[in-house]
Amino acid sequence: MISLENLKKHVSIYLAFCAATALVGTILGVILIGKSPYIASPWLLATLLALVTSAIGVFRVRGIKTPYRFGVVAIQHVWWLTSIGLAGVLFYPADYFMKVAGSESVAMAVISAIWLFWGLYLIYTVHKETKVPIAP
Amino acid sequence: MGTEERKHEWIDVMGDYSLVPVPDKALRTTTAIFFVFTGVLACIAALWGGAVLGLQYTLSEMVWVAITGCLIQGIIGFLTAYMGASSRLSTYANMAWSYGRYGAFLWGLAVAGLTCGIGWFAVETWLFGVMMHDLMPGNPLMSVGVASIWGGLLMMTTAAIGIKGIAFLSYLTVPFWIVLATISFSAGIMVGGGWEKILLAQPVRPAPFGVGVAQVVGLYIAGATITADIARFAKSRVGAGLAWFVQVMVVEVFFLIGAGALVLAMGGARITEALLAVGVGLGAYLLAILGQWTTNDNNLYSGALNFTLISPISRRTLVIILGLIGTAMAAYVGFVAGASFDPFIAFLTFLGSFVPAVAGTLIADFYIYRGLYKKLPATERYKLKIGDVLPEINLTGWISTAIGGALGTWVITIGIPSINSLLISLIIYSILAIALDKAGIRLTIGRCEVTRYGLAPKWAIRRAEKGLG
What we know:
Chain A is mostly helical. Chain A is built from 5 helices and no strands. Chain A has helices spanning about 5-35, 35-60, 65-90, 95-100, 100-130. Chain A is elongated, with a radius of gyration of 16 Å. Chain B has helices spanning about 5, 30-40, 45-55, 60-85, 90-100, 100-135, 145-160, 165-190, 195-200, 210-225, 230, 235-265, 270-275, 280-305, 315-335, 340-355, 355-375, 380, 395-410, 415-440, 460-469, and strands spanning about 390-395, 445-450. Chain B is globular and about 65 Å long. Chain B starts with a helix and ends with a helix. Chains A and B meet through helix 2, helix 3 and helix 4 of A and helix 2, helix 8 and helix 14 of B.
């Protein structure tokens, strides 16, 4: 059994990691506008969605006192990032992105995979420890 | 728990609180409701709706058509979602006040049982088959008919599980789908010649402004009418309404314009084709599968909820029966008609004109008759109480809906048909209900007492009591 504080710490680290990496992705996306706006626009949408979700999540999770409420908020934010991670794993390695921004795309694909798999693990853990439904 | 408290406990014989109020323990956050609503919207049909606009309007015209149509949907859906979150009852249970219990079933059958549960489910399943066929034309498992069969069966699974299954799929799909759809739009625009071409592009089949708005409204009007099926699970009444309004005004407008721009650039709604062209192969398949799945499980779920009003069998069994019928219809169209666009457009036009009359009656009863006239608080207007008596048939709702639907659909030729239907039924119901109440006349047939089984039919109650005994 993991204590609520430890679980909160784990979720907060995940959200902070997502926020930091999404910020890096956003900066890369802005640089990409000069190379190809057609590639930069979906890139920026994905990273900005992740940045906003994770940044808000960091602040929301911090203030919650009850385990159930924490579970609901944590799972909702982690789901969103997990889903963006799934999209990222599929689209960053595509030729469309690799041709214009090869190394940046590889980096974002790896980051997306971390968002995805770490997120899935966290959803399971938070669900197990707080008894909050998988889709609250 | 005391005896007094136990007396007021609801027994949910049909499953997923189909005919009883949703209890506190099952309520969900506004975010969760937003996700489920957006999951319903994240579908290929929304993109095809945008594609139809792309054939008829320039980019700037399309923006105004999409915003106007979505605003109308947003307002209607806000009102019905607020209603559902106030009563915590499904659309069909809410309809028991304005149509009577059997009336709720019959009109619900038109709105959701047949249109959503079987009609939309079949159309979306057929569209799924078309898309799978486009993705892999040579594969026999991906022929329109065969893909409709396995797609339909797949979509039945989460609907059979209920709100938990639908919410799970929505959480997984929504952000993924928004990102992939954006890539599809960008890639398609780039491949098709860029923004310069889109800004100068002229539509192939120009149409008046009102036609496009009616198409946009029609695309999702059934969904806007039955928001209570999901909103009844909302903790916040205003939150439920806003969850609907925001997803329509932001996400749907984006989908419509994106798909329309894709048509202006590429000459067709080649959403998955654009993804395949730029190497997002697996993404294209998942976009098609998950997009249709999140929408169609809701269609089926709502359709089955309607049938619980008169059916002795459980909601889950109903989902399976309706799902099999819808799948068979989709497969039939798939095998016979192949990948034709026409049935879809005809279906949209019909829905856009007639279904809003039901929404008009519901809104008039809840907000005008019980709200403004009777001055009841929102949570008391459709509050199901054990021992209360409801009519089996309330003719006031029948008359207003029949007149509103008929005039709006077939008689009045100016304006937007769906809005005409809605406003006529709203006005007729308000006037009739208030006038009849002042005159002390009841246009009702039969009486139905609310038991601890909610609005469950007698044979379902007998079966449940045998089981309990």
